[in-house]
Amino acid sequence: MKRLIFLLFISCAPFSLWAQTKITGTVTDKQGKPVPGANVFIKDTYDGASSDANGKFSFTTDEKGEKILSVTFLGFQPSDQKINLDGKEITCKATLKEAVSELKTVTISAGSFEASDERKITILRPLDIVTTAGAAGDIYGAIQTLPGTGVVGEKEGLYVRGGDASETKTFIDGLLVDNPYFSSVPDVPQRGRFSPFLFKGTSFSSGGYSAQYGQAMSSALILETQDMPEQTAINAGFMSVGGSIGKTNRWKNTSFGVYAGYINLTPYYAIFKQQRDWSRAPQSGNGSLTFRHKTSQTGILKAFVNYAYSDLALAFPDTTDPSLQRKRNFSLGNNNVFTNATYKEIIGRKWTLFTAASFSYNKDKISIDTNKILSTNHLFQSRIMLSRPFGELSTIRFGWEFQKPVSATSYNQYSTPFDETYHAGYAEADFYVTEKLVTRFGGRFENSAALNKNNIAPRASLAYKTGEFSQVSFAYGDFFQAPDKSYLTTYPSSGFAFEKATHYILNFQHVDEKQTFRIEGYYKKYSDLFKLNTIFFANGEAVIPGNSGNGYAKGFELFWRDKKTLKYGDYWISYSFLDTKRNYHNYPVEATPTFAAKHTASVVWKYFLPKWNTFAGFTYVYATGRPYFNPNNPVFLGDRTPDYHNLSLNFNYLTSIKKNFTVLVFSIGNVLGIDQVFTYRYSHDGSRREAIGPAATRTFFAAIFINIGSQKDDSDKYN
Asked: What integer is the mean pLDDT of 667-681?
């Protein structure tokens, strides 16, 4: 039998050898110099070799027919050429062109801070976010240390360059997030719903952002989810307020992850005194599933599902009581689901196809004394985009998106439904005139069925490289947004139009691998804002809603980040000057809105001590007082709160438990115990007031996070 197998082997071997094709050749650069270590392979196969010290390579393959021979090497553009595999020896020559470095090429930067593992220049990575003192691991908390953002401590949201929270939108993989924060609670700001480690890239645009996104008059926070994980791992967290656990399985082309977390603040509130009258401390839970599959060498399918619930109850002052001693009872139960799926693939060798779809659902069950409020909303949306490079650097992209939000809010027996159908199309091109000069021209068309209106929003940017690491940029654009749905349902036949903001931004920046300096000036003009106009008659008055509101915001900002001066240190400094006024909503005159501070500054400092494997840092935030409404002052919004000061500390100890990477975290917020005042609450008759500050004078957080399956020392990521 063995002899038979041997005879079969030697009889078949020649046919196998005859079917093989030998491929030899050389790899050089444009000057004809050999490129050693280049990766040479046949696309979609494992057949290939590396070039030697003389740039030569040789290998054999069993593949047949027409194939693509690829040559890649770090710092050079990939080279592809067609070859025909017919058993005859093939000799090839590949000439590689040097890739254009992002540090040497001008980029569109006006109004935008970007962070991505695909870029050499990063502003905030996930580890930056979780190690920023005072941010408490929240994406939005860390973003508030960047210029352009305001300090508003009594409610959630990003307040950017004189815009209120509704003017900043969050997008995940190009799709709008309808409820990015946990549901609102009186005088208690809420965190964002998503962990920063879900995302590989963060782009915070404080103005002048791409035509790919709309319905945000001030700002866009654009998040891109992680692709394939590096390995199978289990992550566990044990916190002073709860715990979490997750597991991710990684196969060759597929990964699947599951995560669950629970938080209960009852024990924490029992130890640390709170400045809110909680009758049921907040508790919440969430779970998520992630799926990733590489459909080809250039294609990937991603899906994400997240479910969360929360429950709480507290009492807050009744403003109809002149003494402000009587309380009203508030309780909230929330259920939230967010799902999205995306597919990305290169088609026809030049075009990149991106498609995405999402569904979200949110339900708030609220009680205020005996009154019952039930608010539900769901949003379905889809998106498709095609992009294509032309030339060495330039790109054109165009796409279409669809949104279908449906909601209903009931107050006791009264209900107000809302139904919208929204379409948008966009086109945009980044055109590099030279490596030093780039322009971006684009436009966006939007249609709202609820408004029965269309708009066209032009966008344009220009950037010029002034030195090896410096450049100037200019951006202009129109940005539209539908009025809040509460106004559309309260005044259903008022013929509203889109609200509008026009941005002008001028930026200078100097960026190398260790230091970043930016200075940016801007002017933003508001028009067609929602406004309640009071008309007086001889026998009374009437309120007429419309789009007659207007306003402006102007200012300048500074940002400096330095990871060079101190060997294991990293710090950044932000400063913002803001001059803004508007006449909108129920404002009787033009005034600076209650969320706007004239001066805001922050300092974030981090230092890694390798001897103790400890990472320490602090964040200091300062803001001048904000306007507040005083019914006893004839000047509308003529009063200001005291200046805001907050110093926060954090410590992270890096170690391992049975060779599994482990981080011990401890942080303190408002270390100095300063009595912050965000605004004031007045009794209905104006006779008494009380200050509204943070929920606690100081905050404390401690946790242990273990990555089971990761045995490497990740301390280098902190540098």
From this structure: 93
Q: Which amino acid is at 534?
A: T
Q: Rounded to an integer, what distance in angstroms lies between the CA atom of residue 487 and that of residue 492?
A: 8
- For 408, the token pair is 């209903």
pLDDT of residue 102: 45
The side-by-side arrangement of strands in the sheet containing 56-61 is 56-61, 21-29, 90-96
Range of weakest confidence among 25-29, 71-75, 457-461:
71-75
Report pLDDT digits (tens) over 212-264. 999 999 999 988 888 888 788 888 888 888 888 999 999 989 999 999 999 99
Number of C-beta neighbours around residue 199 at 10 A: 22
Residue type, 139: I
Structure-token pair, residue 243 = 């715990």
- Chain center to CA of 511: 21
Q: Are 106 and 507 in contact (CB under 8 A)?
A: no
Q: Residue 712: its pLDDT value, please?
A: 43
594 vs 622: CA distance, rounded Å: 17
* SS3 assignment for 330-341: EEEEEEEEEEEE
CA dihedral 705, 710, 712, 713 (to 10 degrees): -10
CATH homologous superfamily for 2-96?
Immunoglobulins (2.60.40.10)
CB atoms within 10 A of CB 273: 9
Angle, CA 686 vertex, CA 683 and CA 690 arms, to 5°: 50
Q: Which of 104, 59, 103 is nearest to 83 (CA)?
A: 59
| Amino acid 501: pLDDT | 97
**Strand duo 499-511 + 470-481: pairing:** antiparallel
- 573 pLDDT tier (thresholds 50, 70, 90): very high
Architecture (CATH level 2) of domain 112-245+254-265+297-317+337-718: Beta Barrel (2.40)
pLDDT tens digits, 312-338: 999 999 888 888 889 999 999 999 999
Alpha-carbon span 601 to 572, nearest angstrom: 11
Confidence of residue 123 (pLDDT cuts 50, 70, 90): low
User: If we measure between CA atoms, which residue out of 618, 715, 632 comes closest to residue 667?
Assistant: 618
In this structure, the chain runs to a length of: 719
Confidence (pTM): 0.82
Q: Are 224 and 116 in contact (CB under 8 A)?
A: yes
Mean pLDDT of the 8-33 span? 64
Which of 84, 193, 216 lies closest to 139 in space, CA to CA? 193
Which among 517, 183, 177, 510 has a CA at the least distance from the CA of 373?
183
Contact status, residue 196 vs residue 203, Cβ threshold 8 Å: no
Question: What are the domain boundaries of the chain?
Answer: 2-96, 112-245+254-265+297-317+337-718
Q: What does the CA dihedral 210, 211, 215, 219 come to, rounded to 10 degrees?
A: 10
Cα dist. 31→27, 95, 98 in Å? 11, 9, 11
Stronger pLDDT, 365 or 228, i.e. the higher one: 365
Distance CA 693, CA 689 (A): 13
Question: Is 588 within 8 Å of 617 (Cβ atoms)?
Answer: no
Asked if residue 713 has pLDDT above 90, the reply is: no
- Buried b / exposed e along 257-272 (16+ C-beta atoms within 10 A): bebebebbbeebbeee
Which residues lie across from 702 on neighbouring strands? Answer: 666
Coarse DSSP helix, strand, coil percentages of the chain, rounded to the nearest 5 percent: 5, 60, 35
Q: Is 514 exposed, middle or buried (0-12, 13-18, 19+ CB in 10 A)?
A: exposed
The reported pLDDT for the residue numbered 398 is 95
Residue type, 691: A
